[in-house]
Amino acid sequence: GSPAGRAVGEGSPGGGGRRVFSPAGEFREFSRRQLRDMERLFRQYDAGKDGFIDLMELKLMMEKLGAPQTHLGLKNMIKEVDEDLDSKLSFREFLLIFRKAAAGELQEDSGLHALARLSEIDVSTEGVKGAKNFFEAKAQAINEASRFEEEIKAEQEEKKKQAEELKQRKAAFKELQSTFTQ
């Protein structure tokens, strides 16, 4: 295929020794669409276009999402996922927010929880939709199983009825026979 169609992180192995971060490779729990939405959101608030969301950009983001944070609150939000301790969020660290949200690891009253909830990227959808589909499939399987059982019962009833009729015919025949043999 064309080089433009290749995912980030493919290509020459060990290029310059720096590992290229591949969101789809590392964050497999998210669909490509979810990852695209997260990247769009990240870029939208990366006002400096430096590949990071710093404290001021995060402040603006939280205000826009309708969950303004205190200065300390913002610092704590960054601290919670800031793995390289540079006091700003890389895209990878930004994705960690959604990973933690999906895993239920964010405190209900934390800014990160609010960010994940208000960002309109529903990381739980896959799970919930999966569960919904699971239950629908289960209900359908139960319905099919009970329909199957119904059919078996109906067949058994039919067989019983036929056996009963056969018994009655035999009895009638025997009775008829006995009238002739007297």
From TrEMBL:
<dbReference type="InterPro" id="IPR002048">
    <property type="entry name" value="EF_hand_dom"/>
</dbReference>
<feature type="domain" description="EF-hand">
    <location>
        <begin position="33"/>
        <end position="68"/>
    </location>
</feature>
<protein>
    <submittedName>
        <fullName>EFHD2 protein</fullName>
    </submittedName>
</protein>
<dbReference type="InterPro" id="IPR049025">
    <property type="entry name" value="AIF-1_EF_pair"/>
</dbReference>
<keyword id="KW-0175">Coiled coil</keyword>
<dbReference type="InterPro" id="IPR040365">
    <property type="entry name" value="EFHD1/2"/>
</dbReference>
<dbReference type="Pfam" id="PF21008">
    <property type="entry name" value="AIF-1"/>
</dbReference>
<keyword id="KW-0479">Metal-binding</keyword>
<keyword id="KW-0677">Repeat</keyword>
<dbReference type="GO" id="GO:0005509">
    <property type="term" value="F:calcium ion binding"/>
</dbReference>
<feature type="region of interest" description="Disordered">
    <location>
        <begin position="1"/>
        <end position="21"/>
    </location>
</feature>
<feature type="coiled-coil region">
    <location>
        <begin position="138"/>
        <end position="176"/>
    </location>
</feature>
<feature type="compositionally biased region" description="Low complexity">
    <location>
        <begin position="1"/>
        <end position="10"/>
    </location>
</feature>
<keyword id="KW-0106">Calcium</keyword>
<feature type="domain" description="EF-hand">
    <location>
        <begin position="69"/>
        <end position="104"/>
    </location>
</feature>
<dbReference type="InterPro" id="IPR011992">
    <property type="entry name" value="EF-hand-dom_pair"/>
</dbReference>
